[in-house]
Every structure is written in C-alpha cells, then in structure tokens.
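PROTOCOL LOG
Step 1. Enter all chains and additional molecules of the complex.
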Amino acid sequence: MTEFKIDITLTENPKQKPDFAHLDFGKNFTDHMFIVDYTKGKGWHDARIVPYQPITLDPAAMVFHYGQTVFEGLKAYHTSEEEVLLFRPDMNMKRLNRSNDRLCIPHIDEELALNGIKKLIDLEREWVPTAEGTSLYVRPFIIATEPYLGVAPSKRYQFIVILSPVGAYYKEGINPVKIAVERQFVRATIGGTGNAKTAGNYAGSLKAQEVAEADGYSQVLWLDGRENKYIEEVGSMNIFFKINGEVVTPMLNGSILEGVTRDSILKLLAHWNIPVSERKLSMEELYEAYQQGLVEEAFGTGTAAVISPVGELFWENEKLVINGGKTGELSKKLYDTLTGIQLGTESDPFGWTVKVEKQEPATLSQTN
Amino acid sequence: MTEFKIDITLTENPKQKPDFAHLDFGKNFTDHMFIVDYTKGKGWHDARIVPYQPITLDPAAMVFHYGQTVFEGLKAYHTSEEEVLLFRPDMNMKRLNRSNDRLCIPHIDEELALNGIKKLIDLEREWVPTAEGTSLYVRPFIIATEPYLGVAPSKRYQFIVILSPVGAYYKEGINPVKIAVERQFVRATIGGTGNAKTAGNYAGSLKAQEVAEADGYSQVLWLDGRENKYIEEVGSMNIFFKINGEVVTPMLNGSILEGVTRDSILKLLAHWNIPVSERKLSMEELYEAYQQGLVEEAFGTGTAAVISPVGELFWENEKLVINGGKTGELSKKLYDTLTGIQLGTESDPFGWTVKVEKQEPATLSQTN
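Step 2. Run joint prediction.
Step 3. Record the structure below.
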C-alpha cells in the first residue's frame, strides 16, 4: 500500500469524561476524530487526527439531499491486561468498501482507514471503559460533501471516525426482547440497498419501529420485500433461530446486511459441530415448527448488542413465546464466548482480535 | 394558523451573480437562506432568514448516520410583467408533510413554510433569471440534527430553504433522451420509502444511473421491486406513454413518487378531453404495443425538467425507437402549456400559479 502520513493535532481542552458506570449508547464522544478528504482527480488525501469538532458543510452538500453516505460500527474492548482489542476490524473495512460500491462512493484504502482508527483509539486509550458490557464504540462514516443539487455521485467526500464510550445497547441487557413481525413496511428488497450499510436503510426503518414500540414491542422482524414471506432481519440486526437442534439464519440474498457478528456466529457454531444452515426461512415454516414445539431459541446478532435473545414474536394476532420467554442456552453460550473473545478472557481460535498497539510517545507528539 | 414571526438578517456581502445566460443546474446559490429549528417539546421555532452560510453540525448528527431527511423541489418564474410566480407550492408543502410522516419527522406548518419561501424569494427577486427555460429553483429540506448514534427518530431538526438560479436541467433541453430499462437494480418497493421524497431513494438510484450512462443512456426506466415487471418511474421523474391515442401513467402504488408535474399533466389532459388512465403498465404490455406500432409518445415529468421526451428505450437487447426518436406532438403541447402557465403567458384555468408579493420595504428592514 501507499504510505500514508497521518497528521495529529491534539486538543487543548480535553473534555471531562462521562460516568463510565452509567453510559448511554452513542451519546458521549471522545476528544478527537480522524478525517480523510476525497477530491475527484486527487483521491483520498489529508489524513489527520484533530480535536472532536463540528462538521461545517454548505447547505447544498449532497449528503443532505441525496443521501450518499455509508457507515460502519465496531467496538474496542479494554482487557484485564490493560490492552485494547478490536474485533475483526478488517471485516468492517471490507464491508465499508462493498457499501461504497453500491453507493457510488470511491473505495478507501482499507489499511489507511484501519491505521487511522487504531491511531485514534490509541490516543483515546483512557476513553475505553473497563466495566463489563462496556466498550468504546467506533463509528467510521463517509459523507458526500460537494455542494450540488443534481442527482449524481458527489465529487467530494469526507471519511470520518468518531468514538463513543458505550454501555449496553439494550437497557434489557441480555434479557429477551419482544418483537413484532412487520407486515406493512419493508426494510429492503433485492436490487435495493439492503446489503449496504447506508443511512437510507435506517431512515426507512424508523416508522415500523415507531409503530411496534407503540404496541409494546422493542423491535420488528422484517420480511422480504418481494413476497412479504421470508424472514430477513430483526430491527437492525441479523436473526437466528434454533429449530429442532439446527440453527437457521436467512441466507445472504442481496437485501440482508452481511453482519460481522452473524459471520462470527456461523463460524463458532461450525467449530462446535452444531448443525447450522443459511437458507430461506418463511414465517409460515417458522410458525409450523413453533406449533410442533420445535422452535427452541431465537436471537438477533449485531455489533451493538452482540446477541439479543428474542422471547416473544407477535405474528398475525398470536404471541409466539420462545423458550418460555427466557434466554436460551445456546444464545447465552454464544454471548459469553463472543464477548469473552472480544475481552480477551476466552481463547481466540480464529485470531479475530486485533491489538491496538501503543505508539511511541515521540511519534504521537511529532506532528502536534 | 399560529402567527409566526420571521426574523431577517441581511447579508453585508452580496455575491456577484452568475452569468444568467449560462446557468448550470443547482450550482449557484443566492445571498440568503430560510431556517426554522425544531426541538422536541418545543416544536418548530426561530423562523429566520439569514445570509447564505455553511451548516455546522456535530459529527454524530443523525442525518449523517441514519439519513432522516426529506426535501422538496419547486421553481419560481420571472414573468414578462416583472412578476415572480410559484407553481402549485401548496402541493409541495403537502407532500413535504407526507414525506415527514414516512420518515418520522414532525409535521411543519405548511403556511409557515410557504410564507418563509415567499419572503425569501421576494428578498432574492433579482436572482430570478428571466431568459427562456431559466427559473429560480427552490429547495426546501429538513435534516435530523441531534448528535446521537442510536437508531431512533431525532429530537432535533432544521428546516432549510435555499435558492438556486437554474438553466435547463438536461443539456439536451426538450430534445428526446435515450433510456435503458433497469433489470438489476430497484429504486423502491411497496412498504418502502419510494413515495417519500427522501435522500436514501436518490442515493440508491445512483448505481443504476452510472451503469446506464456508461452504456450511453441518460436515464433508467425503473420497474417495480416485487415482480420486476411493472413500469414505475424514469430516473427521478414520473413516466407517461401515449399508446394508441390513450395516455397511460403508472398508478400511485406506494412506491411511486406523487409528482406535482404528474398531477398537473393528468388534470390538463382531462381538461383537454384526451383519454388518460393511471394503471399498472408492464414492460411486456408496452413492448407488445410497440411491436404493433401503437406506442406514439413517451415522456418523463418532473419539476426540474418539466417534460423530458423519451426517444429510445433499451429493453432486452432491443432498441425501441419512439416517434422516430423525435419529440411528440402531445409532449410538446404539454411542455408549452405547462411552461406557459408557469411563466404567466398562458391562461391558468386551474389557478395553479401563486404570485410572490412584494413586501413593504419597511417590513423588510424592520428586523434587519
């Protein structure tokens, strides 16, 4: 790869850190951010770490109008050995570029992006919380910045990384949630943007979520956009079911997001010799299995929540209670193993964790 | 309605106006902008006209991550009587709120929004170009501004209106364009956000457009997301076909945008006693009609281009040439009538145009 220089400007006004014992998700941000600019004809340039600060954009900046933007989400964990670990960050960088493809945003050098993330986290080491269930959430994103009202790919972008010390995503923690099968709204369809991590997918999902919450459900289960029949995702997570001893998750079909946690679970299950299949799963098939008492567990998976057990599924005026509304054994084992690997307390047979190395102090201050 | 006060701060550095004879679409902006803030619990507040200036947002502002944003597009025309006319702006304000519903953004008072637009245009009267085909493009939009990385509706928004003097949207002008029927990508599906004017729809459309352009086509014809069979829109316009004397446009089904120009054309055609129907139209049906020599005209409709005739349609390795690749008689008549009404040179039987009244100078400077 090309050697990229990352300039560092340190803040002169460090923030007071929030109470790490009571962290809300995604509301506190660290002292610095990482930025790289893109200009057509010049490529990505001016990689830099600067004090956390507002973004200033022309009101005609294309991100406001035509939504050309992608993002990623990953976490850094503080280990008992005073190390900071990232979990499979290469997967996030690869997905970022797949999202870029779909959104007509130029590829970013994955090593540059990851180096910037590591340097930034290293600088913010004191912001990585240590309590159980907490972590430093890493949010890389790209926005189209050219001021132009024509519908076309932007000629300018910014890649930005911000960091947020977080507690658990769901206040319920690892406790099971109740979800409603969505019949009116659709998250994504084949040929659309469902497998890209782009803002519009999330904007479009809010209405169904709002309706479900008003009915007392914390998430919706999305069905496919073509036939409204096959299970796709739950809220903003992938979904797994344990049916009659076999773990089933919807196969990647172009409208389902390729979750890093999803992939990790598939690999763990295979490693444990637990039968697992990625395939089409219709709500009808699930219901039939439920009636036969064969639906043993259900859980959503994602970076924010890791594993989120599903205790109840609302479908056609019927409440399907799964595993007595309690967290299943496998769900718990997967959660413990994954978070254990992430925290460095469990062995890491796949080499998933990546250590954030401490920089030489000299390097750090060199460009300050 | 509640009486809203609009504060005005005039610029101290008026820009040099661009060459009105050579205006690109959406690249030049006027001296001022209109802003209204929204805060949960307080509603919309602080309506103001200020000098055109950058928007400053926290990097965690939700618009960058979850795409909660809607917009509108309308035009102000300079008449030969030195008046400035808007075309059916009430339709845009109503649609803005329908988009808001879908995106979980709070309704804005339509009269407040329209008053702000009128006051802003009045102030920028000298920016309304006079040459044929030119106009002042009005872009109202709403963005979610709360800094929060959770997937939920924002608690803060800004409604912003910017103005751009524009030439013709397509360099081809009223000349026919070549379009390709899109088979791989999907713009929207029922249950999604297709009938809302929101950024994500446009972001998702760029890829197909890029592929089509590389193949020498200026737009794509979108088919439905469920069966990939029924015609929906063309590029970012609605689509009409004249088949055997009858004008046909896809019926509004929840995934098609309810265009103001589309509605105006339906009303004009009915007024002229030309047979017209809103219904499902499959590509197969169109192809069959084409083979029988019955497809007489095709045109896209939208605020930016008004009428954009389609001269050629690429479908399954075949080029369907419509009306010899020339602008059809009805397309031309609709274009002339609509632009005539918009410019005040044709009679306005439906009362579609709305005059931008001149403010008393006293009112203008009062809050300056």
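Step 4. Note key features.
The longest helix of chain A spans residues 199-214.
Chain A touches chain B through 69 residues (CB under 8 Å).
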